Each structure stands twice: as C-alpha cells, then as structure tokens.
Amino acid sequence: MALAALDVYRDAVREHSVELRPEILARGEGALSPEPFLAARTVQESIDISSTHGPAVIVSSAGMATGGRDLHHLHRLLPDPRNAVVVVGFAAAGTRARDLVDGARTLKMFGEYVPVRAEIADVPHFSAHADAGQIIDWLRGALPPHTTYLVHGEPAASEALRDRIDRELGWTAVVPRSGEAVLVR
Questions:
Q1: How far apart are CA 167 and CA 178, in angstroms?
Q2: What is the pLDDT of residues 151-178, one digit of tens each?
Q3: pTM confidence score
C-alpha cells in the first residue's frame, strides 16, 4: 500500500499538481525516490530480500506486525542479536509490535514461538494518525451527524475523545463495545 501511495505522489509531481508544495515540485520525481532502497512490490521480491546475507535495512509498512510479508522478515531476523527492529509509530495493545515494544522474549508466528534476541527500538512519535486536536478541528468542518462512533484506538483515548467531542462540539459520540452492532442512518 505504501508503494501505491508513492505512485500517486509521483503521478502528482509529473502532472505538476497544485496540491503539492512548491519545493517538492521543484525537485521533481527525485524528491520522492526510494533510492538507494529496492522497492519490493511483489511477494517474490520480498522473498528475495529474505535470502540476502550480510547487513541490510528492511523498511516495511508493517502496521502492527499482525500479518503480511513483514512477518517472514521478523521470523528470520528476531532470533539474531546482531539485528535491530525499529517499531515506528503507534503500536496498539494486543499486536506483535506492542509485544516487541513491551519487551516480549518470544513472539508466536506461523504456529511456532520465535525467540526475540534482536535489539528492539521504539520510535512512537511518527504515527500517521491525527491527534485529538486535529480530529476535533477536522470534525468542526462537517455537519453534525446523528451519532459519531469512535471505533479505532485505545479504550481510554477513545473515551477521552468521545468526551471532548461532546464537550466541544455538542455532538452525540459513542465508543461501541467490541462486537456491538449499531444502525447507521
């Protein structure tokens, strides 16, 4: 998905989109180049990365390390103390990424427990998610809905945002329970 987003930005540069900042347009496609990295778009290209030996940097938009090709890389890299895994962005509770950040000694992948001997570094401040203030500002520009459902985020943060939406916007906001069904009008 990240590479598809990169393609969208490259197209925008080629078309001189007015939505791009002038300094990006001035640098052209080179401003968005992943060089010197190999952009692995296919499963086979990702598998090929796993067969390389020696030092490497693997950048993956792994989300919370809950699935996808990145699990194969983690499976291979985590047992070796010479490796480092950097978790960038927010790692939600209940995910492998959070387990790594919290110091898990093993992770279950592909039906087996993998020892975690690699160094784990947590860089939580690069999350692509908006903060509460940004969400409130964005909502101010919308017509008030019948009900606002908060379905993504940690429970305490969701409840705090619900209260803030109620207090600042006067909207009905709800944090549904897991598995709860609601009628959306």
A1: 24
A2: 888 889 899 999 999 999 999 999 998 8
A3: 0.61
